[in-house]
TrEMBL record:
Superkingdom in the source lineage: Bacteria
Keywords noted in UniProt: 4Fe-4S, Iron, Iron-sulfur, Isoprene biosynthesis, Metal-binding, Oxidoreductase
Coiled coil: none
Gene3D superfamilies named among the record's database cross-references: Dihydropteroate synthase-like (3.20.20.20), Sulfite Reductase Hemoprotein, domain 1 (3.30.413.10)
Cofactor: [4Fe-4S] cluster
Pathway: Isoprenoid biosynthesis; isopentenyl diphosphate biosynthesis via DXP pathway; isopentenyl diphosphate from 1-deoxy-D-xylulose 5-phosphate: step 5/6
Domain IspG TIM-barrel: 10-280
Originating organism: Neisseria elongata subsp. nitroreducens
Protein name (Swiss-Prot/TrEMBL): 4-hydroxy-3-methylbut-2-en-1-yl diphosphate synthase (flavodoxin)
The protein's Enzyme Commission number: 1.17.7.3
SUPFAM superfamilies xrefs: Nitrite and sulphite reductase 4Fe-4S domain-like (SSF56014)
Amino acid sequence: MNTQILRRPTHQVQIDHVNVGSDSPVIVQSMTNTDTADAQATALQVKELSEAGSEMVRITVNNPESAAKVAEIRQRLDDMGCNTPLIGDFHFNGERLLAEFPDCAKALSKYRINPGNVGKGSKGDEKFAFLIRTAAEYGKAVRIGVNWGSLDQSLAKRMMDANLASANPKTPEEIMKEALIVSALESAQKAVDLGLPENKIILSCKVSAVQDLIQVYRELAARCSYSLHLGLTEAGMGSKGIVASTAALSVLLQEGIGDTIRISLTPEPGASRTKEVVVAQEILQTMGLRSFTPMVTACPGCGRTTSTVFQELARDIQQYLRDQMAVWRLQYPGVENLNVAVMGCVVNGPGESKLADIGISLPGTGETPIAPVYVDGERKVTLKGDNMAAEFLAIVREYVEVNYGEGGKKRDYRRVIPIQTA
């Protein structure tokens, strides 16, 4: 029986064809690490991230050279048939870049503004106002993104001074967390006062520690109805970044908090940027919130499975399914819900294989060298010999064509947790 996750009610934000908010699925976002001034490289990486499943992509707009290329990047993407919305990441000089390059302002679908580094005092207020008015003029959404490492120091000092004068002062750590929330909420109210509708605003308060992130977002969620973007800032590299992001975001998502997510992984040297997209999808899919690609269930291996055959097959099947999704997503609606099991011995193999849509139970060490294949719970065929992997892949392809093709019984079937708002 599915457990329904109650989404926190929010304003619904339209960003081109992407809907963000509690009435829509949680959206996966990512960011390029190319030099935006290199229009070709940036457009190609955006397309790569989009094909991996990123539904919005953020690009750095930090100097005139990059701002001058944003419209070209948008055009290149359109020419390649990639309609993924582009988010402009502005720091320090965003108002000047938008003023000098109106084509950049128009080509972007959303602006990301950090109130901690727009500027200080009245000058900072003027710069913030220009950014917001530009967004309102062109009908663009804005993410007001507060970061622990670049918090508005004047606000922090004001709150620290007030805390010292309090009869029951809080710890400096508590005040800093509160300052993050206040910065986001005060900036959002300024934006509304300047003419940007509430349904054009997304908020984020990013920190790098799991427990701090959970605490800050719980409080932020309780105090507003804005859509929220989740993510640990500087999550880290490899398993550390994946584990930390999963630990933090899963808790919040389970509580119905979060409308877009990004996994800020530091890529291994030379590695694809798409890893962060895959991790974001897998968090949402394993929680039952969305389905992106067929899932492969595989046993971890033990002394019964000294052969690496099942490991290799599980790896190859998983990669094959993900690679096919760019085409299958269009040809076979609902195929993302397919569940495949690749098991290594007779202990749990037959049982897990029967529970999957398609499952294969490979022989363990010393077992009869045959592999029964189960389809929809029924034993269909028994494979043996050196060609088992290719034969099993053929069975998977046939299953997809028959069940998710035109007239297929599982076409467009959605096995996900229903969206409900509290």
